[in-house]
Amino acid sequence: MSETITYRTGDATAPHGAGPRVIAHVCNDAGRWGRGIVVDISRRWAEPEEAFRQWYQGRAENDFGLGALQLVQVEPELWVANMVGQHGVRSRRAPGAPAPVRYEAIGQALRRLGEEALRLGASVHMPRIGCGLAEGRWEVVEPLVREQLTDRGVPVTVYDLAGE
User: Fold this and answer.
1) Could you tell me if 153 and 40 are in contact, meaning their C-beta atoms sit under 8 angstroms apart?
2) 65-116 tens-digit pLDDT
3) CATH superfamily, region 18-160
4) Rounded to whole angstroms, how far apart are CA atoms 139 and 128?
5) Helix axes 138-148, 103-120, angle to 10 degrees
6) What is the domain partition of the chain in residue ranges?
7) pLDDT tens for residues 103-151?
8) 140, 141, 145, 80: which is closest to 111 by C-alpha?
9) Mind listing the pLDDT tens digit for each residue in 6-27?
10) Phi, psi angle pair for 50, to nearest 5°
11) What pLDDT score was predicted for residue 110?
12) Of all helices (H) and strands (E), which one includes residue 159?
């Protein structure tokens, strides 16, 4: 059964609804954490940042890299999905260099997220992933969200902050 994407104004770190929920966001492959939605995530829970930093530090022995997914439980029915879909960070990019977004990696991470969301019976909540610091375009990311999540029956809510 195919679901639709629900768009609403609000904060993705305070997802609406009941039952199991996953907050999804895109991380970079440079091990940096400290700008964008992760600031709000870290204000609410310490575990996602701690897990991301450990995941990055152990990258020689684990699956950390573009397209990877790390699911971190922060409350009894709430998880944060760290999805590696950005190569490097914008501030380190030379003028004229490609944007940090990696659409294929976002698609791979979303595929993995879809599997986990179905296993958990969870809905997914996110900002317009890959379109902030990663400099992606929602018209490219949205079809990936549809293909990997809503077309597989995973309910998705996309949050836009007021005034954006």
Assistant:
1) no
2) 999 999 999 999 999 999 999 998 866 556 777 889 999 999 999 999 999 9
3) Leucine Aminopeptidase, subunit E, domain 1 (3.40.220.10)
4) 10
5) 30
6) 18-160
7) 999 999 999 999 999 999 999 999 999 998 889 999 999 999 999 999 9
8) 145
9) 999 999 999 999 999 999 999 9
10) -60, -45
11) 98
12) strand 156-160
Q: Residue 106 half-sphere exposure, CB side, CA atoms within 13 Å?
A: 29
Q: Which residue has the tokens 């659409």?
A: 103
Per-position b or e across 83-117, b if 16+ CB within 10 A of its CB:
bbbbbbbbeeeeeeeebbbbbebbbbbbbbbbebb
Cβ–Cβ under 8 Å, residues 140 and 124: no
Determine the residue type at 52. F
Contact assessment for residue 22 and residue 122, using Cβ atoms and an 8 Å cutoff: yes
